[in-house]
Amino acid sequence: MACYMVIPEAMDLCAEYLREVKDSFTIEDCYEIWTITSNHSSLTDVARLYRRYLIQNFSKCVQSKEFLEHCSESMILEILSDEDIETDDTTEEQILQGTVTWLKHDWEQRKVNVVDLLKKIRLGLVPVDRLHSILGDELLAIPECKVMVEEVLKLSVTMDTASPPLIKSHSELFATRNTITARLEEDYDDASTGTIVLLKCETETACYKMTKLADIPNRFPYSAEKLSVYRVFVSNENQLYAAIDVEYFDEPGGEESGNQKWNKENNFFQYKSETNEWILLPPMPELLTYPRMVQIKEYIYLIGEVKIDTSKSMIQRFNIRSKSWEILVEDSLLLTPYAISLPTGQILVKAQKYYRSGPNNPDVRHYGYGYWAVVVALYKPATNELLDVSLDTTLDEDSFFVEHDNNCYLVTRGECKDKVNIVICDELDSDKPAIVIGDDVVEDMFEKLDIREQFNPEFTFDKRKLGLVQVPCGCESHVKKREVKLE
After folding, report:
1. Surface-to-core class of residue 318, CB atoms within 10 Å of its CB (0-12 exposed, 13-18 middle, 19+ buried)
2. Which end of the chain is less enclosed by CB atoms within 10 A, N or C?
3. Where are the alpha helices (DSSP H) in 85-230?
């Protein structure tokens, strides 16, 4: 009545009362209050409060006669679409059972909604024996529903339902409602003497930090240890790896005693999401500066400048299965090599190479009697060869290659805007591989390629377990979305 009569003071008092006594109401009362407040814009915050309560208590709702009789199709769809419906006490199997209960309460009127509702349920998270049991149910008399269930059963037989590739390729079926895929950004406090390593992630709408991510274990408790996360890598199996640069004293009290000699290690860690801990893996054979990391089959390849001897760079690889390292190639590729894996199982490397003498080329930078030039090389794992690739153009320092949908593209940072060209790889299996830079591609290809992928890997995780907290950011796309929301 306060809303109909437009009495703001009375509306505020009603809203305050409803917020305070929520926990004393029954499910039936909460449902009725949600339906009433949803119809008044001035009570939106109260409606949101009761809506959340009902969603998080969905299993109790479907035991209420009031809810089963009066909950509309639009409301049940809204509930099933919300990620908060899945809690520690409410599994996807219970969500399916509750949906079936609502449908069967008035089957003749509600059976037209079966397909739409079933699409909102993560059927891949429902136990296989439960899916088998509903194959004979009247729900499956509807052909489209039967096809949906049979597809899930087929995938469950051929693959592990918890496998990252299956979760990523069929997220609508196998990913938990709290699963999120985001870009990772390495972040750390290099002045810290502790072992705190933070990871930031970027979604389409905002940037977050992971507050519950386990710390890198402190292996040198007596020293003023310094950690630097200089590369984070996500494997094809959605396993998170971190290359950590560690500096420490080799004896207690090293700093106080005036012994300023630091020991350095490049440690390699794997993150176990099941237990939220970092596992120390065998250390890298050589210290590399900001290595590029790519994966081919069961190997993670690290390509970078040797930290101790800056006159050369190196390719090392880590065997995920045997947890062992090996050095493959040493070369004079220097200064931030950039690498991608090709669909052919080879690695394309772009870097700068120092030549002690050479032609007077205006496109290269001269230093004393030598010069630097941007070069491209092809690494062949099968034969352990690193071959120079001939180019039909001169590349600048900021250009790099991108693999996308089995095609290779060249991205060039121009003065005005980014430019993308198709790349034609020719005779990669020969001893003299070549690359031809083709025509410009369509303007929106830069956005389609999602260039951030080359620097910030995608990681899929449960946001409840890692605790996401939004952080201020100046990302152009996020700023625009916030401005649009305010408007």
Report:
1. buried
2. C
3. 92-105, 107-110, 114-118, 128-133, 143-158, 164-169, 171-174
With beta carbons less than 8 A apart as the criterion, state whether 32 and 18 touch: no
Run of H or E including 54:
helix 44-56
Interval 108-128 mean pLDDT: 88
Over the chain, what is the mean pLDDT?
79
Q: Are 355 and 361 in contact (CB under 8 A)?
A: no
Question: CA dihedral in degrees (85, 90, 92, 96; nearest 10)?
Answer: -90
C-alpha 310/C-alpha 335 separation (Å) is: 9
DSSP string, 96-128: HHHHHHHHHHTHHHHGGGHHHHHTTS-GGGS-H
Q: Which of 206, 207, 209, 208 is nearest to 485 (CA)?
A: 206
Q: Do the beta carbons of residue 259 and residue 278 sit within 8 Å?
A: no
Contact between 399 and 379 under an 8 Å Cβ cutoff? The reply is: no
In order of 238, 296, 315, 345, the CA distances from 299 in angstroms are 14, 5, 12, 11
CA quadruple 469, 475, 477, 483: dihedral sign? positive
**Secondary structure of 251-311 as H, E, C letters:** CCCCCCCCCCCCEEEEEEEEEECCCCEEEEECCCCCCEEEEEEEEECCEEEEEEEECCCCC
pTM of the model: 0.74
Distances (CA, A) of 104 to 27, 86, 107, 134, 139: 20, 22, 4, 14, 9
Q: Which residues on neighbouring strands pair with residue 412, listed in sequence order?
A: 419
Nearest to 124 by CA among 173, 83, 86: 173
Contacts of residue 80, defined as CB under 8 A and 6 or more positions apart, other chains included, come to 95, 99, 117, 120, 121
Using CA atoms, how far residue 156 sits from 141, 252, 414, in Å, is 22, 54, 48
* Rg, the chain, Cα only: 29
Backbone φ, ψ for residue 297 (5° rounding): 55, -125
| Rounded Cα–Cα distance for residues 181 and 276 (Å) | 17
Q: How far is the first Cα of the chain from the last one, in angstroms, to the nearest whole number?
A: 31
Beta bridge partners of residue 319, listed in sequence order: 299, 324
Residue whose tokens read 């992630």: 201
Q: For 313-369, how does the pLDDT look when each residue is reduced to its tens digit (9 = 90+)?
A: 889 999 999 999 999 988 766 666 788 888 888 898 888 777 665 555 544 444 455
